[in-house]
Amino acid sequence: MRELIPLFPLGTPLFPGIVLPLQIFEPRYRRLMRDLLARPEAEDRRFFGVVAIRQGWEVERVAPAEALYDVGCTARVHAVRPQSDGGFRIVTVGGQRFRLHDVVVADDPPYLQGEVEWLADEEAAEEAAGDTDGLVVPGTAESAPPCDEGLDEVVASVARGSMALLTDGVRDLFVHYVAEVSGLGSDDGEPSVDAETAVLLDAVSDDPTALSYLVASAALLTTEDRQSLLAESATRRRLALEARILRRELTLLQAIGAVPVPLQQFAAPMTVN
Prior knowledge:
Elements (H helix, E strand, L loop, with lengths): L1 E9 L8 E6 L2 H11 L9 E6 L11 H4 L3 E12 L5 E17 L8 E6 L4 H10 L16 H37 L9 H9 L4 H11 L4 H9 L3 H22 L17
Parallel strand pairs: 1-3
Antiparallel strand pairs: 1-6, 2-5, 3-4, 4-5, 5-6
């Protein structure tokens, strides 16, 4: 089923569970906030969809559906502070991922709306599919049939163990990455992990999905890399992709001492030329 929701295009994607503070000053988004605040809090509808901008210019200057990536995440409004100039300071938290099918542009409301399909995670299916192939039950020469209850338990055990190894590997790579990045800006150039990052990592230590979203949002990656991570529906595959990306970024950090710059920073306003 598809649903029409307000859209808020940004230069980078939002991930589930990640805090996103915003300052609302444009008239159309002031109207969006007034519309959301007019809804009864009990309805749990005070959210909008955050979608990353594919091009480096204003969405309205090109076809909106082409200017935006097709996978986004809702931002649920948790705190609102009205400003004296009519704007708002808000704190949102990433909620549910969605696929954007169409963009609605109208005079009323003045903000973009998107026709979206909610995306479900594929954890259970991925756990089974990722570890059954090629598995041989001890004492047999061939893989056991999928209906074998003993095999089901073996698969579950292997899945848990391999997920734990993958999670530990990504956490270690991320700690190494954060230390290397911090070393670029330190006076002595020595790698170190700040206290805030250590606290965040400790908070998600038992949750592979939360760890995958923390790494995706905190690492200094291009919008394209972050979008690929958001679009991935299974934690296992997301962590595996992060492991490859972090190894690549560590190699670049150690070789040339640089991190990616989003392409939007190089974009200039469109002209008649």
